[in-house]
Each structure stands twice: as structure tokens, then as C-alpha cells.
Fold this sequence. Notes:
Strand 1, helix 4 (about 95-115) and strand 2 form a beta-alpha-beta unit. The protein has about 190 residues and is mainly alpha-helical. Helix 1 (about 5-15) crosses helix 2 and helix 3 packs parallel to helix 4. It has helices spanning about 5-15, 20-45, 60-75, 95-115, 130-135, 140-155, 175-185; strands spanning about 80, 120-130, 160.
Amino acid sequence: EFDQRAERAQARERHPAATVAELTRLVERRRRQFEVAATVSSLRSDAAQVTYHAADVGDPAAVREALAAARARMGSVDLVIHGAGIDRSRSLMDKTEEEIEQILAVRLGGAQALLEAAGGARLVAFTSVSGRFGNAGQIDYAAANDGLAGLVVAHGGLALDFSAWADIGMAAPLAGAAASALAYAGLDAAV
């Protein structure tokens, strides 16, 4: 189990001059790494052949290299999962053009890079219900997720629209509010 207190203490020890926000980002990065390792371990215990490669999906060469490494290790790749995303929720008037482009590039450009490098592998994308229903402060993120779902499905892949998950993911701190908003809209939220 991930021990957030211990991780924060270790981060503070390794980076004594770090701000609270910097320490929070460091701990969050470690938590995500822990979750990935636990998921891969769980899949392997079910006799699945799994390899995990992190790459900047905005860099098509890095994506090609990661998939080539996976093929070299596994022999073939049957499934590629795209879960990369950036959320900078706030009013459109407060967003820069560069931020909007970055959010679109990670979701859509990342999917395009994965599709080009995947060969015959099927692409599964973790998308957001914001792409279907919108969300306050997320016009760019919603557009990116709607486009991502359409792109992946058009290429024979699968798009899974999720709301905020209770304990994991970039929207985990908002899971309760997301569940309330979905319930208000008449949707069943399993968070």
C-alpha cells in the first residue's frame, strides 16, 4: 500500500528547499509510479504478458522507440493503452493558447503517434465523460477527449469514457464532486 506520509517525508528529506506544491507534485508522481507497478504486477499474476513503457506521447519518435522496445521484449504487441492527459481546469479566459494546444496535443497528438506506431495492435484510450457532457473550466479537455474517442473508434480501437475515479487518476481529488454532478444529470456514477 502506498504510504503518502512516508513518501512526503522522504521527498522533504531529498528536497529540503522544495515548496509545498513541489513536494505535492513529487509525491503524486511517486503515487502514480506505485499504481502502475501494482497494476502491472496484478496483471502478471493473472498470467498476462505485460510490459510498461513510459514515453512522451507528444514525441512520435519516443512512442516508436517505446513500442519497438515492447516488441523486442514481448515478440508482438496486441494492445496499446493511451491514458496520458493534462487537466488545467479554469475559465477559458484564464488559459493561454499554449496550454490549450498542450492539452489537445497530449490527447489527440498522442493518440495519432500511438496509432502510427502501433502496427496491428489495438488502441484502447481512457477518455473522459467530459468529452460527452462537458465540464466547467474544461472546454479544451472536453474537446480533446471527444476528439480522442472519435479518432480511436474510427481506427478500430476502444474508447472508455470515465468520470473521476475515487482513489486514482488526475481527477481523484474531485471524485465526490464529479459523482454529485453526474447524479444531478441523472447518470449513475460508479466512483
